């Protein structure tokens, strides 16, 4: 385990997560129970333990398991389990920074790029978090994340993603920013540059004032302006970024309604110790159905039980 992991860990997690540290934590007992469960292929015990420990505690359990058995816990899970449950429990074992790096790598792997998944991570994380994720990416894959992004994307969309990776908050004047954005749409072809510069370099309060002022100045919703002025990946990227500035929890709830297993697991694992309660509330407001109930309509078996354990309860 990289000792720097624990230094950065505390900076990630807030108090609005559904998974909290287990109060009666006993890593030796957990490791012994997991060993027995792996031998019996007892999925219920495995998911019960791993979904009821914080990620930091899971790292301790994995190390204790290694010390006691001279075996790798992840390898044991792969041998004992299969399918979506195996994937989910392995994701829970992955340290947060490495997990986000893994998701980004998967979004760029193979033929074609998963732009939506790239945007989900880059638009919902702070500049500080993205620097930590970039460092984890380089450590795990021996490649620079920014170079990988540039190699998989192009044009204004690539510029947007790189700006997100390097975003730092700088002061701005709301009126001037509004004028800058309005002027960017006055030519024959809209200029994405001002949008990228402003939306990736101001704090959220400032940007919400800018977006509201832009709507008042143009008489159109921001999404309508983007729809009319841009096309392709850059329109998608700017639209997602605006949604995340206005209400990131609503955006993530919308992502969950797509109901694809990698999307659901990605969001739930990534946000389980940070702000999944906020996403749950947004999901209920958006759909009229609790996330807990929606999961039961979509998944089944032990995989469902693991997801429900992460979700925790009805709203």
Structure description:
This is Annexin. One of its GO terms (molecular function) is phosphatidylserine binding. Belongs to the annexin family. Keywords: Annexin, Calcium, Calcium/phospholipid-binding, Repeat. It comes from Sparus aurata (Gilthead sea bream). With 315 residues, the chain is mainly alpha-helical. The protein has 4 domains: 3-93, Annexin (Annexin V, domain 1, Orthogonal Bundle); 108-165, Annexin V, domain 1 (Orthogonal Bundle); 174-246, Annexin (Annexin V, domain 1, Orthogonal Bundle); 249-311, Annexin V, domain 1. It is 72% helix and 0% strand. The protein is built from 21 helices and no strands. The chain has helices at 3-9, 27-40, 43-50, 55-69, 73-80, 83-93, 96-108, 115-124, 127-141, 145-152, 155-165, 174-184, 192-199, 204-218, 222-229, 232-246, 248-256, 261-271, 276-287, 291-298, 301-311. The protein is elongated.
